[in-house]
Amino acid sequence: MRQVFLDTETTGLSADNGDRLIEIGCVEMLHRKLTGNNLHIYVNPGRDSHEEALKVHGLTTEFLSDKPKFAEIAQELLDYLKDAHVVIHNAPFDLGFLNMELARVSLPPVKAVVASITDTLVMAKEMFPGKRNSLDALCDRLEVDNSGRTLHGALLDSELLADVYINLTRGQEALLIDESSGVDGDGHRASVLDLSGFVLPVIQATEQELSAHEVVLTQIDKESKGKTVWRALAT
User: Fold this and answer.
1) Catalytic residue list
2) In a designed cystine with 109, which of 80, 99, 163, 182 is the match (CB 3.0 to 4.6 A)?
């Protein structure tokens, strides 16, 4: 499976209010192995970055002044993304800018040309509810080295995202098998086992365990002042 990890930098936070793309970074992974076939493009936005955005990415108007306009690189980007499984952290933000730029030059949105889009922020929130799930926070939690990230850069962030994604899905995608080819998520040949005759054992809770469980439920219900869902449904 061909995956592309994508990140962008922009002049500000709102595509609807005139902010523009200034950098696109894409990292390619094939069967969970980085290929080195990456795409990195700086874009002349035709406007200045907001002060706060400039502090994040450090890409000045002067530096971007001789870079191509988005219209000049748009087709190259779509050709690179075609049929890929795209992975983005906080996808609505990046897609909002990409689709705005594509619409400006009468080209289709990203979703129309790629195979799928995965948002690692959504994945992280499901896996680590209630915790900080920024890219930096995930790097710390999953022991991904981000010591070189003094400023945000689209290509570097895409590389970090690829490492984060591998750690988020370790032990999951490695078990996925392409039935047509017998290849697992790491690109290795895999044997297909017939589990149709295997019966999972069912271990029932003991009376003591059920009693202890009821005590815990009662305590939770008491602390919530009788507002627990299971008590309401029971009545």
Assistant:
1) 152
2) 99
